[in-house]
Structure formats: structure tokens, C-alpha cells
Amino acid sequence: MLRASLKGLALSALLISTSAWSWGMNGHRVVGEIAQQHLTPAAEKAVKALLAEDSLAEVSTWADEMRSSPEDFWKKQSGKWHYINIEDPSKMAQHDNHAVEHKHQVSHILDGINYSVSTLQNPKAIKEDKLFALKFLVHLVGDAHQPFHAGRSEDRGGNLIKVSFFNEETNLHSVFDTKLIEHQSLSYRELSDFILTRDKQKIAQMLNSRPADWLLESNQVAEKIYDSNETDISWGYIYRYTPVVKSRLLHGGIRLAGLLNQIFDKNSRPLDTALKAAK
């Protein structure tokens, strides 16, 4: 059964398993690649000034890779940046736009997004801090759209739920991180091209939201998956949930672009010129 028997724990006391790499490498790269395709010229120039020769796709996995660093921040603090456990969806609004002045004050993914955005918008922030913020923001927007990064505390976002994927033992979190994506047998560029949209109406609908909304969406998707109580995963599951994964990746890429355009392009307006394709 997918439903765990343990009761919810306090959000601040939880640590997600370090074995859960959000979206896997290709999933994050898809989000970065789609965002790169939708940057306005001004935003693209600002991003390049920080990343030099790297693309958004290339830096999208940085925040996971750095978790192997021996530095205290990466070993002891960075893990909680990647997720949030939503015990009461009605209370999410209190976390939205919560001011976080220092990275050591971050207690969950929404704090991490807010910190990264405010750092990038701060004209007094040094380049090193802005580079850190940009790399982390690219990753966190991807994380925010992975359903089980807004899952239940008692099963650590599906990590403790054992399932069978075509007779291979794994866990529910990993199925949505990597299994459903890798089962497509596509490179991240191919998958990005397949799901990329230039539809202005769809883009406007995706942009008509805030980071707290993205996490609530993910939580709702996760709850539906929990309720399905499926542990033996094969072709029927692939048919039902691959479109869900593709949709979350597309939403993540479009919203990341919209966020970066608003940060770096003074002429970018939400739902109007927030994306190059919407001009």
C-alpha cells in the first residue's frame, strides 16, 4: 500500500533522504533547456554574464552534485533546500514571499527560491553570491515541479515506499525522478524539443502562478499518486503518468524562464512579455 502508517512530523525536523536526487540529471536538464529557449535577449545576456560558457541545462544539476562536497553547508544544510512537506495546504500562503536574507536561514524549498530571487535582484550582492543563487534557482524551480518534493513527511517524499518497476525493486520517488524519464530513451535535448511549446495561451496559463502555487500543484499530483495505491508498475502506469511527468517538466521550464526574465529584463511583464515567445 502506498499510504504510510506514520503520522506527519514537523516540517522543520525533517531531512529528506540524500539518495533522492530530484528529477535525475536529465529531468533537470530538460527544465534548464526549455527555460534557455524562452529567455528574452536581455535576460540571456545577464545569465551569460554569470554563467560564462555554461547553459542553464548544464548548471541545473549543480546543486545535487555539490551535496558530495565536504563543506558544512553542503553536508548539513543544503538538503532541506530541495523539498517541503505540506501538512496543511491552506497554510502555504504564509511561506510565500517570505524574506530570507541569508542562505543559512533557508528551511525549505520555498525559502530557497525566495532567497535566490532576492539575491539576484539585489544590486549590492557580489557576483559570487549571485552565481550561487542562479545555479540553485535553476535547480529549485525544477525540484518544485517534481511531485514528491512536496510529498508526505512520513515516507520522505515517496522514498520509503517500495515499488516494482518492470520487476525491478525501487521506490516511488525514484520512479518519478528518473524511471519514467529514462524509459523514454531520449536525450534531454530530444525530450525538451518534444515537449517544448510556443503556444501563447498555454504559456500565459503556466505563468499565472507563484512558486507557492507550483508546490501546491506538485502536492496535489503526489496525493493522487498516493491514492492510486499502485506498487506494481508496468505499461499501464507508463501510459498514465508519463504525460504527467512531461507536463511538470514543461511547466518548470516555462516558469523558470519567466522568473529569470522578470529578474533580469526590466521590460519583461508577467503574462505579456515575460517570455520571448509571448512577444
Automatic annotation (TrEMBL):
Instruction: Name residues in a coiled coil.
Output: none
Cite a single GO MF annotation.
Answer: nucleic acid binding
Q: Which UniProt keywords apply?
A: Disulfide bond, Endonuclease, Glycoprotein, Hydrolase, Metal-binding, Nuclease, Signal
By its UniProt entry, which Gene3D superfamilies does this protein fall under? P1 Nuclease
Secretion signal span: 1-22
One Pfam match, given by its short name, reads S1-P1_nuclease
Look up keyword Metal-binding and say if it applies.
Answer: yes
> Among its keywords, does the record have Nuclease?
yes
Q: What is this protein called?
A: S1/P1 Nuclease
